[in-house]
Each structure stands twice: as structure tokens, then as C-alpha cells.
Amino acid sequence: MSDVKYPAPLERVILAGLQTPKTPPALFEIDMKEMEMLCTTAGAMVVDIIVQKRDSPVSSTYIGGGKLDEIAAKMKQENCASLIMDANLSPGQVRNIEEIIKAKVIDRSQLILDIFAQHAKTNEARIQVELAQMRTLYPRLTHAWTHFSRQVGGIGTRGPGEKQLEVDRRFVQKKISDLSDRLKKMEKARATQCKSRSGYFKVTLVGYTNVGKSSLLNALSGSECLVENKLFATLDTATRKTFIP
Prior knowledge:
- The chain has helices at residues 25-42, 65-78, 91-101, 108-119, 123-137, 164-195, 213-221; strands at 11-19, 44-53, 82-85, 104-106, 151-152, 162-163.
- 45% of the residues lie in helices and 12% in strands.
- It is an alpha/beta fold.
- The longest helix is centred in the C-terminal third of the chain and has 32 residues, at 164-195.
- α1 packs parallel to α4, α4 (108-119) packs antiparallel against α5 (123-137) and α5 (123-137) runs antiparallel to α6.
């Protein structure tokens, strides 16, 4: 039996964006290239990039219905699993787009949170990511279920007449509360830990993702923090001690 582990196949996706007169073409191109890099970091293969030019977004679907029909046909032709939108969509927009293209829709925030979930290593980082995901999920639950009419009851629910949506929303609310409490305890412990380092001069490296912070930290301290040419490759903070002559 072979012990060789093969990488999981990349998820085939279509990346779509909306270019309006308010956004300079050069800036829009940079933004779309960054989105493509985010898709790669998340483990997706961008099969095609589709851009619509409009004066303003469509309130119900962000991009126009004709362009969505084009995207749906392209996704079927290329056997794509998801549409990734270069925008932060409302729950209603996600629902409406999914109804048209009959496939999963991921907006910019969801994509970044997915990357965070993959790269979070410490317990605190994982809780922070899960909390952010739950807060993003909660307002979308209104449109997330097709089994609204199913009645549930029993232990953990308020009564036999409660709809599944209400159970799901209350579950997410409780999860958010529990994660927030755990995070507060961790932050308190970290504050105590920081006080123990009060005798040291502290320097903080701050910058956008993939600009070389980890590389600089390694060069200054001789450490071996992960360095990759990917957006959000390192998510957790790192503290190292070094001596400056």
C-alpha cells in the first residue's frame, strides 16, 4: 500500500468583477489580479475572468442578468463549482445570483475568511476566524435554507412548533456568544503575558499581506517563520527576541 499523499484537486471557479466609471481602469486591474491571487491561495483554479462594465451595480444581483446568464453557461461548459465575486455581497444578492446560476457564490469576504481558516495555526487565531465566519453567516441564514417548513423539537429547542431556521439562527447566536467569551479569556491571558515582557524594548512589524514581514523578522532574529509568496500565507502573530549591537 502506497503512503504517497496526492494533493487535493483544485476547485474550478469563475472569477467575476464589476467595473464602474468610479474606479480607474489601472486600479481595477490591480484589484482583479489580487482576487486571482486570493483564489489561488484558497486552493481554487480560476478557469476564466469575466468583467462587466456598468455605471453602477444592480441592487438585486450586483451584476446584470444577461451577464449572469453568460456566467452560468460558462460555468456549465467548464464544469466549474463556484462563482467568486470581487465584491462584498448582501445576503439577498447571494441568494438571487445562486438562483440564476444554480451554483455556489462566494464573495470577497468569504474568500478571505476561507483562507484565514486554512492558515490559522494557534487556538486564538482559529477562534477569531470562526467568530468572524459565524458573524458573516448569521445574517445570511434568512436565505440559506430550503427546509423552512420542517418542524423540529426535542432537547435543545424551545418547543415542537419551532421552524428549522429559528433553531439554526439561535444556534449561531449561541456559538457567537461562546466564541466571544473564549476569545476574551485568551486576550486577558495574553495581556498578562505581555506584562511579563515589560523589560524589553518592543518593535512591531506592520504591513499589508505578502510584503515581506516574515522575511524581515527571520532576517532580524534568525528565526524560521513560514515564508511563501502567497497572500495571507502567515496569519498568526509571532514574537521573537533578538539583540541589536
